[in-house]
Amino acid sequence: MDVKKLAAEVQDYLIEMRREFHRHPEPSMKEFETNKRIKEELDKMGVPWESVGDTLGIMGTLKGGKPGKTLMLRSDMDALEINEESGVEFASEKPGLMHACGHDAHMAILLATIKCLVKVKDELPGTVKFLFQPSEENGLGGRLMVDNGVMEGIDGCFGMHVWSGVPVGKISVDPGPRMASCGFFTIHVKGKSGHGARPHEGIDAAVASAAILLNLQSIVSRETDPADTAVVTIGKVRIGDQRNIIAEDGYLEGTTRTFQPEVRARFEDTIRRIAVSTAEAYRCEAELDYYDIVAPTVNDPVCSERARKSVIKILGEDAVTTFKPITVAEDMSAYMNIAPGCFAFVGVGNPEIGADWDHHNCHFKIDENGLINGVMLFLQYTEDWLNEFA
To answer: Quick one: which of 38, 43, 46, 41 has its CA closest to 121?
Structure first.
């Protein structure tokens, strides 16, 4: 497979599709037109596809001309509820919605990859499956895909994320933890309303809620090994109705992150203990709803080393970069916990053109010159993986 030649032939298509997806973003579990558009492109290429259950997921299949194992390549599809202020000429045409994370690029990269692989399918020793996954941003899509059977018959998987924090021309495929787990929780604090001028006649949910918020910080500072990673963030608080009324109810919403399974396993019980005990100290009651959404994304060492060699083949030794793990979550872990895999960070950062804003920012941009590297990496890793298991 002449990876560079194949990729060059789809360069225009790659940019065209990325910009089309960027103009027409859709939020999680509402990727209706995106779903339709991807299916149209697969039909044009002659690649059979099937819908994933009753979801908006799509699985395409390309059988090679020789026997072998099955590799899955994955892209996400959803956008964010952000009003775009990037200033690009192909900005979102939907107010309040924006591809501010790069999923538009992921879909374009995977479609361009498929377009290349179709040309050489008779040479492929095995099968390549292509998963377009909805609902990554809320952490539900990966689990939904697995529950609908997408991992049946899959021997390995590979995914990537374009990243503004990695310079264009660089790629990270480091082994081990890459992205964190994610849990969401809500704490409901129940007190007793009363007049603000006579606080002793009420039971103040505001004071109890504030104490819970502060006490939860001890999970990181006093209950977690300093060598481990733990994040407990309260991002939303709603307490009371009027300034002169003792609050009867308090609501706290937050998130947890870690790379360590043992830390992840303790979050729910620890948060509940602190919330309930603290509330009791202030004569209140507290209830916890905890949702363990996403597992950590951890690169298999063997897959990571294979990917490193693939990067060197297409771009040389200097293109390989180290990118430290980040506590942002990514549900690629849903697949990598079943079949060995690797998740790459493909550099699209370039301060000279303003492509250095963080992801999920209204000014987010990417250097499109980095997208072709994603296509080449998908192609090279696919060839290397299939040949290894032929």
So the answer is: 46
3-state secondary structure of 64: coil
Return the H-helix or E-strand segment holding 238: strand 231-239
Domain ranges of the chain: 3-177+297-388, 182-294
Q: How many CA atoms lie within 13 A of 188 on its CB side?
A: 5
Q: Using only the alpha carbons of the chain, give its radius of gyration.
A: 23
Say if residues 301 and 175 touch (Cβ distance below 8 Å): yes
HSE-CB for 128 with a 13 A CA cutoff: 33
Residue 369: per-residue pLDDT: 98
In the β-sheet with 66-76, what is the strand arrangement from edge to edge? Answer: 49-51, 58-63, 125-133, 66-76, 156-167, 341-349, 171-172
Residue 101: the pLDDT is 98
Helix (H) or strand (E) holding 255: strand 249-257
Percent of the chain whose predicted confidence (pLDDT) is above 70: 100
Q: List the chain residues with pLDDT less than 70.
A: none
Across-strand partners of 64? none
pLDDT tens-digit profile of 360-384?
999 999 999 999 999 999 999 999 9
Architecture of domain 182-294: 2-Layer Sandwich (3.30)
Complete DSSP assignment for 114-157 = HHHHHHTGGG-EEEEEEEEES-TTTT-HHHHHHHTTTTTT--EE
Q: How far is 271 from 3, CA to CA, in rounded Å?
A: 50
Domain spanning 3-177+297-388, CATH class = alpha beta
Residue 238 has, within 13 A of its CA and on its CB side, a CA count of 6
- The confidence score (pLDDT) of residue 284 equals 98
Contact 345, 267 (CB under 8 A): no
pLDDT tens readout for residues 73-112: 999 999 999 999 999 999 999 999 999 999 999 999 999 9
